[in-house]
């Protein structure tokens, strides 16, 4: 188990020997095939990577366990409550409801340590794995594994730069064990570092075509790296490059929208079922499994409005905001699969009342008068004693890539009627049962992203990348109160950059200094 505490300066910059030990204990994944490996205690460090299978297993922890503290409440407290999609009175996760978060808020520490744990474990693979493989290991297997580590390090830094802008770039944790106080580097350097890692991943990861063998889709591919690169480029307003990268993925045929015309009323909701983990639309996802507290997905507990429909003793930590409830267009099929309203019927949501579920009139988590449906799988019989399930969590879906492509063509303009942009934009609208449009504005696109990706940990980051004044106007207009008590925030342009965790500032006072350029030599 990864052990993250604030008792030592070295907890942040983990010694490489500890990292290797963690890797040996932490190979976890949602598919059985990830778990079929020899017992770790029969191998020394030098012997462990003697086969292709052992090398391939070395990245499994990077698909779940290192991300646990970010995923467990934290991402949703920031991106969904902060973005105005979710609502809660729960004191441990409501600091961003009215943008009153401080440096002592535990969600900041959890996000920080989770991202840097992923960086540390990725670094250990990147720096040590090439010298710890036997002669029988195929070079392509080694290259692909290193590509995965570079991808996950890039993903960790993509979260870090969007949350804090300037953070320290660390390529080898072992170099900083004796002097763990590091300056931050400017966000343009962070993005350059992310692009470098993703280019490495593109060059070294396997090419795939996502099919019905979902177990084969769990690990990232060249297409995954190109798709994430398109998003990274979009955030930097490198519109031409983002468009070209998105088109490479779209034209490759690797991914497809899930469900499509066969089940138009249910296809969107089916994306979030356990049996559809790693489906054709999944570009990259956190992989969860049953076992202990640090390996399960707890969204079924946190999002389900009541223990009536989950396998836990509580529910409803988060509820939909009043602002989001009012944001769905009439006829949008995503509404019922994203939020529950009184009277909604779900034929395949097992609950304490039977194999199906009708939302009662008195549904009232957090006094919101509605509940979250996305990622709620009910009493499915395969949750662990803590309420965790083996349901994947999307980090990026193919559906989002169409909106990235459309926005890249829009390229900062107020509106567009470009046929290629419209094709991508309308692809998402039509799956949602909405009429295609002949043009769209940036505000339309931002709205479409909000609805498509609600409760997937993205909207706060969208607000953080647009004009600060526009973000202020959007948040100031949101009803951030409950069903009976409207309440509004008073945001400032600086609110969309989070403070460094106070515990980290104590350990590393250089976080409070001006960032310095990174030496890429």
TrEMBL record:
* InterPro entries documented for this protein: SusD-like_N, SusD_RagB_dom, TPR-like_helical_dom_sf
Report the residue ranges that make up the SusD-like N-terminal domain in this protein.
Answer: 79-234
Which compartments is it annotated to reside in? Cell outer membrane
Q: Which SUPFAM superfamilies match?
A: TPR-like
The UniProt transmembrane annotation reads none
Q: Which top-rank group of organisms is this from?
A: Bacteria
Q: What is its main location?
A: membrane
Tell me which Gene3D superfamilies the record gives: 1.25.40.390
- Ranges for the RagB/SusD domain? 280-511
Q: What is this protein called?
A: RagB/SusD domain-containing protein
Which organism does this sequence originate in?
Zunongwangia atlantica 22II14-10F7
């Amino acid at each position: 188990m990864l052990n993250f505490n604030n008792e030592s300066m070295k907890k942040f910059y983990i010694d490489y020997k500890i990292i290797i030990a963690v890797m040996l204990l932490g190979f976890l994944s949602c598919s059985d095939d990830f778990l079929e490996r020899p017992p770790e205690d029969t191998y020394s460090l030098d012997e462990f990577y003697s086969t292709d299978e052992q090398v391939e297993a070395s990245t499994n922890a990077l698909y779940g366990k290192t991300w646990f503290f970010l995923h467990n409440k934290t991402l949703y407290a920031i991106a969904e409550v902060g973005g105005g999609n979710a609502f809660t009175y729960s004191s441990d996760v409501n600091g961003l409801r009215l943008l009153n978060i401080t440096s002592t808020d535990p969600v900041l520490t959890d996000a920080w340590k989770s991202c840097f744990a992923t960086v540390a474990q990725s670094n250990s693979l990147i720096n040590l794995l090439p010298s710890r493989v036997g002669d029988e290991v195929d070079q392509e297997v080694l290259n692909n594994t290193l590509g995965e580590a570079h991808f996950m390090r890039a993903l960790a830094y993509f979260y870090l730069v969007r949350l804090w802008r300037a953070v320290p770039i660390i390529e080898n944790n072992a170099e900083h064990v004796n002097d763990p106080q590091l300056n931050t580097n400017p966000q343009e350097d962070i993005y350059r570092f992310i692009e470098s890692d993703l280019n490495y991943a593109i060059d070294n990861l396997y090419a795939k075509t996502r099919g019905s063998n979902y177990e084969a889709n769990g690990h990232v591919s060249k297409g995954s790296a190109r798709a994430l690169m398109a998003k990274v480029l979009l955030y930097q307003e490198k519109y031409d490059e983002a468009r070209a990268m998105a088109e490479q993925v779209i034209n490759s045929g690797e991914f497809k929208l899930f469900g499509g015309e066969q089940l138009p009323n249910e296809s969107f909701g089916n994306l979030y079922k356990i049996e559809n983990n790693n489906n054709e639309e999944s570009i990259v996802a956190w992989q969860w499994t049953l076992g202990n507290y640090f390996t399960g997905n707890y969204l079924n507990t946190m999002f389900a409005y009541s223990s009536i429909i989950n396998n836990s003793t509580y529910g409803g930590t988060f509820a939909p905001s009043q602002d989001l409830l009012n944001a769905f267009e009439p006829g949008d099929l995503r509404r019922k699969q994203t939020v529950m309203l009184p009277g909604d019927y779900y034929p395949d949501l097992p609950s304490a009342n039977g194999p199906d579920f009708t939302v009662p009139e008195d549904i009232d988590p957090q006094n919101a008068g509605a509940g979250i449906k996305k990622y709620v799988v009910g009493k499915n019989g395969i949750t662990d004693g803590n309420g965790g399930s083996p349901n994947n969590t999307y980090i990026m879906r193919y559906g989002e890539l169409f909106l990235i492509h459309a926005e890249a063509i829009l390229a900062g303009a107020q509106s567009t009627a470009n046929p290629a942009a419209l094709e991508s934009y309308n692809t998402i609208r039509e799956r949602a049962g909405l009429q295609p449009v002949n043009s769209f504005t940036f505000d339309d696109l931002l709205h479409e992203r909000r609805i498509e990706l609600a409760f997937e940990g993205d909207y706060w980051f969208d607000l953080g990348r647009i004009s600060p004044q526009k973000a202020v106007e959007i948040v100031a207009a949101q009803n951030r109160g409950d069903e009976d008590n409207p309440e509004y925030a008073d945001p400032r342009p600086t609110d969309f950059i989070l403070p460094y965790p106070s515990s980290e500032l104590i350990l590393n006072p250089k976080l409070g200094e001006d960032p310095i350029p990174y030496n890429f030599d």
